[in-house]
């Protein structure tokens, strides 16, 4: 899900939802919850739904050159197979050494700047 101003919409060229988490968060999820299943009772669904949190073994690799491992984790509906991609937002050390304060990046080459 991408947020543009005050509206929420799915990008027309993307077939799934994407969220981003901080680097400490992905390490925590990998350490304590990788391959864990979570069952939720949901209104209108008699038996509820089960979701799997799957962490990519390459989540610690922050390189943008590994194009096969840009997604660090997935939250998967075990019944339908639908999933949400989870990417890690990291400090962009290259930009920071060039004087760009608050530079962040994701392995899929998206860049962000955070001003304090």
Structure summary, number of beta strands: 9
Largest sheet: 7 strands, mixed
Shape: elongated
Summed over residues and divided by their number, the pLDDT gives a mean of 87
Fraction of helical residues: 10-25%
What is the ordering of alpha helices and beta strands?
EEEHEEEEHEE
List the uncertain runs: 1-7
Tell me the span between the first and last alpha carbons. Answer: 25 Å
> What is the structural class?
mainly beta
Radius of gyration: 16 Å
The proportion of residues in beta strands is 35-45%
Number of helices: 2
Description:
- The protein is mainly beta.
- Helix content is 14%, strand content 43%.
- The chain has helices at 23-33, 93-97, and strands spanning 2-4, 7-9, 17-22, 36-42, 45-55, 73-77, 83-91, 103-105, 111-113.
- The strands form two sheets. Strands 3, 4, 5, 6, 7, 8 and 9 form a seven-stranded mixed beta sheet that branches.
- The protein is elongated.
- The two termini are 25 Å apart.
Defining key terms:
mainly beta; 116 residues; two-stranded antiparallel sheet; elongated; 7-stranded mixed β-sheet
How would you sum up this structure in a few lines?
The chain has 116 residues and is mainly beta. It contains two helices and nine strands.
Helices, strands, pairings?
Elements: E1 2-4, E2 7-9, E3 17-22, H1 23-33, E4 36-42, E5 45-55, E6 73-77, E7 83-91, H2 93-97, E8 103-105, E9 111-113
Parallel strand pairs: 3-7
Antiparallel strand pairs: 1-2, 4-5, 5-6, 6-7, 7-8, 8-9
């Amino acid at each position: 899900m991408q947020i543009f101003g005050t509206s929420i919409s799915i990008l027309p060229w993307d077939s799934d939802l994407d969220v981003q988490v901080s680097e400490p968060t992905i390490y925590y999820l990998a350490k304590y919850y990788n391959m864990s299943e979570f069952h939720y009772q949901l209104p209108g669904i008699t038996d509820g739904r089960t979701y799997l949190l799957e962490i990519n073994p390459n989540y610690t690799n922050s390189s943008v050159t590994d194009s096969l491992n840009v997604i660090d984790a997935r939250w998967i509906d075990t019944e339908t197979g639908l999933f949400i991609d989870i990417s890690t937002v990291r400090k962009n050390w290259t930009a920071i050494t060039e004087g760009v304060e608050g530079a962040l990046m994701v392995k899929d080459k998206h860049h962000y700047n955070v001003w304090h």
